[in-house]
Structures are given as structure tokens and as C-alpha cells.
């Protein structure tokens, strides 16, 4: 058998004309098919070495393609005739190569010359995208230097300067005062008009650059940073929508739009955009957008597994402001912070994400500072961010946009005093990292609408179920968030319930200062014996209020168990021995509830006036009654806050080695498996202050005992 092998080549390799190859290369360029562009331009230049169209296309290939080679791009341009090199488009391309890839021993002089070249090109064509991009990028560099920048009088000692920065004034007119004197100590000079002008110029150039040309994504990114620094979110929203229209599979447009919407108060719309952008992110950026490890302190993160889907679902569920809304407000805020930090501190050309930097990490965890200052000396550039109760100072030692937490020289004035506002220490860097690691979770945007809800819940057993009694009130406002509250009940770690139970609460008859939180609204909720989470929420047009309660699973061992220690302003005996007026099925709240023949008026805040009797109610479970069973009750009021070290002292008090401020003790024979009782602590001779109110119950026959406690305030 004769087998003949025939070599086959694509037909265009032998028969395509120059024009056909050029058309194919241009089409491939528009589609981003860089291999085809390279093949066709090489074929053309092999036959026609001075072909102007192919040389220009090859130069663009090595600037815009997947493999950047500035030297080969410049070489291709240099082979063009001088008359062609003087064309606006080619001069702009050469300018971009020089700006982005060129090197110089005098960078500042180089930037001045490049800015002149860009503006000269723009005199011929004000819409030329590359010239606008170069001019805008240079102006953005200037704007970064000027944004929040201040200068000080001659001879200012840097360590002393940092030491008093904690006394800075408001963001509009920052100043510093000498500690302990309240007098102006060091004048701060800030030229906001120059800063504003530079920002506006940068924005104008970058806005034009982002509308056309092959480098629109770079231009859009820099425009987003400029507008974010200027807080011009209207421009951001408009430019983002244009970018999304032309690049629907790029995450950048959706994320910038979401951030701008959030900053203008449209959290629901922002959530939609963040979800759209999330699907186009790479794996690492998607992880950063969802992962609570970016923001959770060690005290909070210990409660959760730090890997897997359970972290994202359970953590954000718990941090959600309002389960009654369709969005997770805290997650939306986190994503907006992440984008803000990336725009302010990320440098894509250097492969640096904003949330990876130390200043960006602070923004992602703590939000937007109340005061930001930038200043410099011969040793570097400094950035100061003040949150009112904490502050950070960063150093850019080489003025290269790479900031790290600053540490002054050991033994200096600043080193000895900087951490006094926090935990103490002598090293600002170590102190800053300690603050960063261990400070609790912080939210900003929704705090503007949040009304503090006071609540003092107690959980009681009803056989194979439990009842949660929730006394609550709103002490910080005359106007309640709404006339209805919503109660949610979910299994810990479970999905957020789609629906809750609405209850109506009464309006105040007096101003809250005359009718404080000892006149609490009371709502009841039935739950099972598993670990649960209860949320009570009230929302109005202007504000909202929430309270969350974690209820542990009941240990069913047949031994002594105690309910929570309920605090009340009054407990009265009634003729209804087994009724509960505020039931779990009621859609109306009241000021009291009935339980086992008593009407109880609980308080929502553990605060009492000196001389006012404190009513205590508790229940004991798991008892085995007989003729010899007896419970011993002891109650004590101890000076101090409720901390982990109270147990030894309470043991001494209950063991009668130390005398408490106030105490009650009595015995009672057990007559049923459930014992419910109340008693009263008089506070006539109690001085104002903070106390721990503790109750110990001892099963006399077995010696088994339980202690429950509440922290209270006497005023």
C-alpha cells in the first residue's frame, strides 16, 4: 500500500495579501487575540520591513498586549518616518511608553517634561486618551501628595509633634494643642485651594481618558481614586455605569459603583452591585471581600472557625444589623470599606492591593477616620488617621507610597506618651498592632441611624420548652424607631429567618428622662431546648434599634439548674397562680408579666437609685423533692464590675470570710421539681457605684450549688 503524506498550511499563509493580513491583524487586536496580531505583523514586516501600519500595530501590541515589551515598542516606533512619528496618536503612544516604562535619574524633572508633552498633544486633540491618561496620572501623583497634607512651623520636633496629634481638632480646621494647657501649641497650615484645584484637574483628564482608548481600565481605576479622594460620588456613579456598559465582565465597574452608592446612603443598591462584581473577581479578591478574618478581632474570631463556608455565613449573620431587611448591612459596609481601601492605598501597577497594606487594613477594620493628616520631613512621609478613641501613624520612609506603622525612637517623648490614650507602652508600632489585633468589631455607617436598645433578658424553663422574657426600651430618643418590634428566633448557626413575629409596643406617656428604662416594654418568646439566637428589632424612617441574645443549649442532666437572675422594680402576689399575661403568642407588649402567682415588672437596664429596693426573681429546676430536700438561698451585693476574677471573692463572701455590702440568706424546703421565688435587696445605705449582684443556691442534702450574677449600677 502506498501512503502519501501531504503538507497542509492555512490558505492565508500562501495567498493572503498585505491588506488582508492587516485587516486580520486589526480584527484580532480588537478581540485581544494577541498571538494572531504578532503572527500577522511579523509576516507583513518580513516582506515589507518599513510598512507603517504594521510597525504601528506592532508597537501597540507590545504596549497593550499580554506580553509588555517597551523596548520593542519604542524600536517599532523609531523605524517609522519622522513625519509619521509626529502624528498625534503616535506621539501620545510614545509619551505613554516613556511615562509608564521609562527610567530617569531625575524623576521630578522627567514628570514636568512629560506633563508639558501631554498638554501640548491635548492642544491639538483634547480627547486624545493616552495624553489625557498621562496628564491625569501625573496630576493624581501631585494630588496624592497634597491630599490632607499639612505643614508646620520651622524647627518643629517630629516626636513632640506626633505626641500632641491626639489633640487634633475637627477635619475641616485641624489644629493641635499642648497637652494639659488647652492652648494652641503648633500651628498647622493646609492649602486646601491648591489641593482642590489639583484634584479637579486630575479628575478632568482622567474622565476623558476613561471614555475611549485601549487603556480605559487603568484610566477608570485612577479616576475612581481621584473622585473618591474628592468625595465626588456622583461622578463615580456616572462613570461606573459607562464602564459597566462597555466592560460588562469586569468587576471594577460594579465594585466602584457599589462603593459610591453605599457612601451616598443607598445600601440596598450597593449590595446588588457588589454581588454582580463578586462573580468576576479572582479567587483571592473574592476571599477578601467575604472573609471576616479581614476585620474580626481575636476576641471575636475565637468564637468562629477561621476557614470554610461556615465562617462567612455564621459570622455575617451575627453581624447583620437588621434581619428584617433583605440585605446584610454589615457585609455591604465591609465591601465598601474594602473598595475604599483599595482605591486609596492599592497600587495595581506594583501588584499591591489596598487591603494588603497597613493603612488599608485599618480602614477595612475601623472604617473612615474622623481626621486624616499627611506631613513629611527629611526622614520620610507620614500619614495620621484618628478615630477619636484610637489613632495610627504610618511612615513612608522612601516616599514611595509604601506606608508601614511608625515607631519613634526608644526613650523619645512620643515613645513614652503615645500609647497613653490606649493600653500604654513605649513603642508606637507595637502599640498600633496591639490595638489593631484586639479591638472589637466596629461599624460606622449604620451607627448614624442606630438607637441604643436597652434590654435585660431572662430565660425560664417550661418542661420541654423555654420562655424568653425580654424587657426592652429606647433611652436615647424621644421618638421610637417604630410602633412595632419584630422578634426573630433561629437555631444558632442556622439561616436567618425570612419572617419574624411582630409585636406592638406602647408609646411613652412622659419624656424618657422622667420615664427611664425601669418602665420597660416586655415581650415573651417561646423557644425549644437547643442553642438559639433571638433578635428583637424596631425600625422607623430615621433610625433603628436591635438587640441580640444567644441562648445556650440546656444540659438535661438531672441536677440543680437555675434560670437567669431577673431584676425587677416591683413584684406583686396575684390570684392567678399559673398564668402569664405577656405570652409568647401575644402581639402586644406590656409593662409586666405574670408567672406562678406573681405579677413581675422587670427592668431593661440594671440601674437603680440608691435607697430603691431591688426585686430579684429566679427559678430552680432539676430538683428531686422529698421531705428532707432543702434549698439554701444567699444573695450578696459586692463592690466592683463583673469580671472573671469575681468568683474567688464571691466564694469568700458566701463562705462568710468577707462581709458584703448587702446580703440576704434563707432556707426553703423543696416541694416540687421546680422552685420559683423572689426576694428583695434594700439599698438604703448603698453608695452610688458599680456592683455585682450575685445569688448562690445550695441543695443542702447533696451540697450541689449554682451561682448566678448580674452587674448593676447604683446612682
Which features would summarize this protein structure in a list?
single chain, 715 residues, five-stranded mixed sheet, 37% helix, elongated, disordered N terminus
Describe this structure in words.
By secondary structure, this protein is α+β, with helices and mostly antiparallel strands. It is 37% helix and 22% strand. It contains 23 helices and 27 strands. Strands 17, 18, 19, 20, 22 and 25 form a six-stranded antiparallel β-sheet that branches. It has a five-stranded mixed β-sheet with strand order 21-27-26-23-24, with helices on one face. A four-stranded antiparallel β-sheet has the order 5-6-7-8. A hairpin with a 6-residue loop joins strand 2 and strand 3 (184-186). Helix 2 (18-31) packs antiparallel against helix 3. The chain is elongated and about 115 Å long. Residues 1-12, 177-184, 413-417 and 421-426 have low confidence and may be disordered.
Helix content: 25-40%
Global shape: elongated
Strand coverage percent: 15-25%
Q: Give the beta-strand count.
A: 27
Structural class by helix and strand composition: alpha+beta
Count helical runs: 23
- Main sheet properties: 6 strands, antiparallel
Q: Mean pLDDT, as a whole number?
A: 84
Measured on Cα atoms, how large is the radius of gyration?
A: 35 Å
Poorly predicted ranges: 1-12, 177-184, 413-417, 421-426
Distance between the first and last residues' Cα: 111 Å
Secondary structure: elements and pairs:
Layout: H1 11-15, H2 18-31, H3 34-47, H4 52-64, H5 70-78, H6 82-85, H7 88-101, H8 107-124, H9 129-146, E1 151-152, H10 158-164, E2 176-177, E3 184-186, E4 188-189, H11 192-209, H12 216-230, H13 233-246, H14 251-263, H15 267-278, H16 283-290, H17 298-301, H18 309-319, H19 329-345, H20 358-366, E5 371-377, E6 380-386, E7 391-396, E8 404-405, H21 413-417, H22 428-438, E9 454-455, E10 458-462, E11 465-473, E12 484-491, E13 501-504, E14 521-527, E15 532-539, E16 544-551, E17 561-562, E18 566-573, E19 593-595, E20 598-602, E21 607-608, E22 614-621, E23 630-639, H23 646-654, E24 662-669, E25 675-681, E26 689-699, E27 705-714
